[in-house]
Write a structure and sequence with these properties.
Order of helices and strands: EEEEEEEEEEEEEEEH
Strand order of the largest sheet: 2-5-12-7-8-10-11
Number of strands: 15
Number of helices: 1
Distance between the termini: 37 Å
Family: Belongs to the CIA30 family.
GO molecular function, one term: unfolded protein binding
Protein name: NADH:ubiquinone oxidoreductase intermediate-associated protein 30 domain-containing protein
Organism: Phialocephala subalpina
């Protein structure tokens, strides 16, 4: 069987803290959307919430929370992806974003654009764990997909963000997403089994399910034991 192991980035061993997150909303472009990440080291759940306004910018808009600090660095190269443990969700579509590069701010104080690695998701209203493998993240630059982007440097992930966006005017208004944790995960085969393909899940066969042998004959599991097995081999040798 394949086992999945998780390492917590936020919550778990590293409790939620409001000092780790800050707003990055469309107000920097003249919009009216706003967001917050309501959290506390004493609460197991953080709530990403706010209001997405699409009227001010003519159908567009975004509200997001990102990690603070310019010198942060997560080495995620030993893992297979990320997992969001969602406690409760609305019917809105959200985006998980990673950045591997941050540039100095421009003279007007605004951040310079760099490539973002994005994954869009809509969680079950009653909560679920959303697993995202690295290859499922899509490279974008200024909101447009960039298919010729270099792979994300997983040894140097600089920023993690959660975003609510309009998706070309298809959603707006209040939003709320309750999150138990943000973690990385890696998959491994159980020590008692070996698999060439790490994604393969072992399955046990019923005791008398037939298997094909190299001659194309059908051999039943367990029939090579006792007198019945001897008679079976004698019978099949006369047939073939």
């Amino acid at each position: 069987m394949t086992s999945i192991h998780t390492i917590s980035l936020f919550d778990g061993d590293k409790p939620w803290s409001p000092l780790d997150w800050t707003s990055s909303d469309d107000r920097v472009r003249g919009g009216s959307s706003y967001s917050e990440l309501a959290c506390s080291p004493f609460s197991p759940t953080a709530i990403f919430k706010g209001n997405l306004d699409i009227e001010t910018l003519g159908g567009a808009g975004f509200a997001s929370q990102r990690t603070t600090g310019e010198g942060r660095n997560w080495d995620l190269s030993k893992y297979d992806g990320m997992v969001l443990d969602i406690e409760k969700a609305d019917e809105m579509q959200y985006t998980l974003i990673l950045k591997g590069e941050l540039l100095p701010k421009s003279p007007n104080g605004r951040e310079q654009s760099t490539i973002s690695w994005e994954y869009d998701f809509k969680a079950d209203k009653e909560g679920e764990k959303v697993y995202v493998q690295w290859e499922e993240f899509k490279a974008t630059y200024r909101g447009r997909e960039k298919k010729d982007a270099k792979p994300l440097d997983l040894k140097h992930v600089k920023r993690i963000s959660l975003m609510m966006r309009s998706f070309f005017g298809t959603q707006k208004g209040d939003f709320s997403l309750s999150i138990r944790s943000i973690s990385t995960f890696h998959k491994s085969a159980d020590a008692c089994e070996y698999h060439d393909n790490p994604n393969e899940t072992s399955m046990s066969r019923p005791g008398n399910q037939p298997l094909d042998d190299e001659d194309g004959r059908r051999t039943l599991i367990g029939q090579d034991q006792g007198w019945f097995g001897w008679l079976f081999r004698l019978y099949t040798s006369n047939i073939y």
